[in-house]
Amino acid sequence: MSAVYSQLTGLLSSTYDWFFSALWVIESERNDAKVNVYRKTIWPDISGKVLELGPGYAQSLQFLKHATLKDGSEAVDPTAIKSYTVIEPNTFLYGGLQKNAELNGFHVSYDTLSYPEGASITTMASGDENVPFKIVKGSLDDPDNIPQAVLDEAPYDSILTSFSLCTVRDLETSLANIFKLLRPGGTYYFIEHVRQPEPGDPLVIEDNGVNARFWGKFQDFLNPLWKVIGHGCHINRRTGETVANMGCWETVDYKNVRPTIDLQSRIMPLSFGKATKPLN
């Protein structure tokens, strides 16, 4: 009986992952159209050994520093980015993820310990100047179960999240693990959708006349249903505030945005910025 239950839950989980990946093909393009203007303000600063959590299809790779290589190709600048590791639990996203990484000149490989199927996947761009890009299956939800491939590359100079902390099971645990995996002086970069900031919040750089109290309460009301539709996505987390209130960062610099482009934007305002780990 337990074997049947395990098979059934595995099938349901896999179907859920597939459904989200199919939805994200469309939704990620709409999302990028709204938020790329904010990514452009911080993504070019990302450098060194990089870890990204929940990259999805990783369209934001285009905003990293690029350069012309010796063979004449345009690629991520190897003098700025030394290595790039991504940790993504949804394997149905891997095809698009690999494609976007290769379009940006990365040399892609898979961690076969967490994802054995990766051993049979053909990858491209293996020149000396191509920055290594490793895809790891997993998450940072459990401090005792971080994939070894992620630990092997630590500490990181830069860690980033882009609309991924909304879906982690435990926000505080994931942020604590991000802090631990950074080198002293390293930087965490983020852009996340959040609960509506309070009216009069001085960190709001675009207000657009949104009724913050109404939409914040609407987010709270909608969140239980949204988590089901959005693959565990919480639309009422105060991620920017949570980062700032951790008390462990040297500096935290973030802003909030209340876009009014459409209904979805009103229930998904943004926090974006960066936090720097102390040198000692």
TrEMBL record:
It comes from the Eukaryota. InterPro entries: SAM-dependent_MTases_sf, Thiol_S-MT. This is Methyltransferase type 11 domain-containing protein.
